[in-house]
Request: fold
Amino acid sequence: MTPKNRKYFLFLLLLALGLILAACGSGDGGGETTASGGEETAAESSEETAEVMEEETSEEGDVVTIRYSLWDANQLPAYEQCATDFMAANPNIQIEISQLGWGDYWNDIQTSMVAGNAPDVFTNHLAQYPTFAANDQLIDIQPLVERDSVDLDIYLTGLADLWTRDGARYGLPKDWDTIAVIYNKEKLDAAGVTVEEINNATWNPEDGGTFEEIIAKLTIDANGNNALSPDFDPSDVVEYGYIPLPYSDSGGAYGQTQWSHFAASTGWVFNDGLYDNKYYYEDQRFIDTINWMQDTVVEKSYSPPFEEIASLGGNALFTSGTGAVTHDGSWMIGTYTGNADFEVGFARLPIGPEGRKSMFNGLADSIWVGTEHVDESWEWLKYLASADCANTVGEAGVVFPAQEEAVDRALNAYAERGIDVSAFTEQALEDGGTFLFPVTDNAPEIGELMTEAMDAIFLGQVEPVDILPSVNEEINELFQ
Reply:
């Protein structure tokens, strides 16, 4: 008997057994226990039958399941819709989506790769993919791009190039982001600060410029004095003007939403370009920037203590009404507008000595090298990076997709909800207004070294000038 005939025979046997047991359980009176047991057995029989049919379907190659992972819960519904649309057009491919928070997500990806059961396709990050690629954990999709004549010109300038190295390509762009100021309109009004003042604020690492004056005016003690008053009590602050660290960390090696925009506005750069092997954390402009930030957090009490931010999260403190101003990425627009019970607005970054600067970052989807379904994974990845899926994501109004038409749809979605997001888009369009996320090797080691150093700085345990030069030396030695 062939394997297929054996499965068919087992299917008939299980079906007959289920019918017999169901019939035995149909009596009344004292047969109540038997009836209950019969229903359970029939259900078990149905499950086994389904397993047999599933095995046969899989063996015949009719349906392939592709596992896909992402970390942003806000984007999950949009990508579930993309999956639904994709499966309707590709009935032989089943998409199974999982979502985990940022920290758990990367731990899961790394451990599952080692265990040999990683997702077939997953959302990747510029800080992570060089390590995956160096460890031969990602499929080079460039041959597939060339085979299928994928048009890379549909993506916003520069995004596709971020995912290439030495002729190999490890992802297709899905979105982009910039940073802007987020403000509590009620607190601005109460302090007599206008949105125009925020939009035109200046900053420098010596005295903080008009931006520091604004956040000082927004910082209030228990007696109602702001931080510009000689009577201000920094030991009894009830409303903070500024939350410089929007998450539960100090920004580590990149400070995308924490300090990168300030440092870059002085003319400082992380390194000299993609895959460079030298960092400049010892540069005096960077040290001065971090010193100013340390002063606002530790010395001047314009901000909640770092311990409180690390415990509760800066964005949670902001949406609870603890602070008046913070800065964050465009992917967080919905979180702020959806979680705050006050009017939230978005303003331009302060103008530094060299102008306004925002990190320009973009995500992509990658294929795990261990997938057993390369062709199906590629079809799904292509769809994720297509105009159809991008438009679906754009219409959801959660992020700015990597394609212009989809960006327009996102802008319309935000406008329909009465949300002005021009602070993010104007930054992206401004000449010289963005700089690229620093993509290099040794990212995990660099992140660990800088996180330890920056945490110590914001805890007030060490001065920036006393730790950053030596840490930078350790980082650059990683490339030797």
About this structure: The longest helix spans residues 32-60. The two ends are 64 Å apart (CA to CA). The chain has a mean pLDDT of 88. The CA atoms of residues 1 and 9 lie 10 Å apart.
